[in-house]
Amino acid sequence: MMKLSQIGLCLSVLMFHSTLSSANEDNMTDSKPMYTVNIESQGGGCELFINDIPVLSSDYSFTISKFLINPWLITGRNTFTIRMLPVDSATKNHPQWTPTARLCKVMISGPKDEGAPTTTLAEAEVKTSESDPPLSKGGSFTVTLGYPTPAWAQSQKIGKDATSQKKILDKYREFHRLLEKKDLDGIMKFSAAKFKEYSRSLYDPDFESDRKNSFQEEFDTPPGTLLGIDVQLQNGLQYEYYHGDRLVSIKNDENRSIIQYYDDGEGVTTEYPLFFYFDGKDFVLIF
Question: What pTM, to 2 d.p., does this model score?
Answer without folding.
Answer: 0.83
